[in-house]
Amino acid sequence: MRKIYILVVLCLLSLSFSNCNKAKSNSRVLITDDKIQDKKDLKLQDFEQGVIYYELSVSDSLVQGFIQSMISNATFVKDNAYGQSKDSVYIREFIAANPGFWQEVGYFPFGKNTVYMAGYEAVYKGESFTFKVENKYNDILEKGFVFIKGRLGIENDLNLYYSLDTAVICALQNTINLDNYLCQSSKDTVSILGYPVDKKTYTLKESLMETSQCFTPYSFTLYTSEAFNSSINRVLPFFVDIPQGILKMDFTLNPRDSFYLSWAPSSIVDRKVSLDESMISASVELFDASESSQYIRAKEKIRQIMELPKIQ
After folding, report:
1. How far apart are CA 282 and CA 6, in angstroms?
2. Is 55 exposed, middle or buried (0-12, 13-18, 19+ CB in 10 A)?
3. Is the pTM of this model over 0.85?
């Protein structure tokens, strides 16, 4: 019966609809590599179906290399990670200068980050130090389906069925409330991989700096495009409730940090999404987050799967 229920949920979530918004542009566009590109070279059509390959990176290249080593080898996280790094002295000094580094970024997806999009439906598949996650959301049904599995030898996985108003999804996403920020819009029109985007910079209101939650960024810059449906925002690790799709986000978590992070696409491919790509892996355990008892159990199990070991 449980397997039948999972199949029914997946079938419901596979409905896709085409977005009809039209992207705006100027006659001349400033692109991210500081070159000027004519309007005729831009991709002005709506992105209705395809794949977006994202990358999350730290501004410090040596630290980024160290993180990628840990992502590629899960045991690296547990077994004297600093000692295994050829840049161990530098890494230790960096951590000493940024003592909250692992608490701030340890749960972030520095591994593979792929979004499969078809109309109003988006599927995200990502990888962090301790877990892999698949998140599928349909903007018409306002329902989502999640698969999460541990990476560090912990035989734990689960499926989670949720609706738009389910708070448990916050365990998998860092929700950013724009009401807490001061906004400054850029006069430049920027292009990312050929798509014109709007650029806005947000800074946390001074009155909230000491009371904000752990993963609230101090400041961030959003690059959004009307060519992309906002359903992709519902599955990204950093959720901002805006009508345009988020293509890029640069952010600083703490004003005392000596680094910043960047979430950006490395490639955008306009093609048909296969059935396998749009499917979510199945677990023997299925939770419905709309039921309070299942919500509590699911949240505790997600916490166990995501738990970050002490890195030394």
Report:
1. 8
2. middle
3. no
Q: How far apart are CA 295 and CA 293, in angstroms?
A: 5
Cα dist. 238→87, 217, 274 in Å?
Answer: 30, 10, 25
Q: How far apart are CA 26 and CA 70, in angstroms?
A: 43
Q: CA of 89: how far to CAs of 69, 96, 114, in Å?
A: 16, 11, 33
Distance CA 210, CA 17 (A): 43
Q: How far is CA 289 from the centre of its chain?
A: 21
Structure tokens at 131: 């877990």
Closest CA to 32 of 268, 232, 264, 269: 264
112 and 120 Cβ atoms separated by less than 8 Å: no
Residue 7 has pLDDT above 50, yes or no: no
pLDDT of residue 129: 84
Looking at residue 43, what is its pLDDT? 80
Structure tokens at 22: 């039209």
Q: Of residues 310 and 26, which shows the higher confidence score?
A: 310
Nearest to 86 by CA among 107, 69, 105, 108: 69
Q: Which residue shows structure tokens 């070991």?
A: 309
d(CA 45, CA 92): 47
| pLDDT category of residue 38 using cuts at 50, 70 and 90 | low
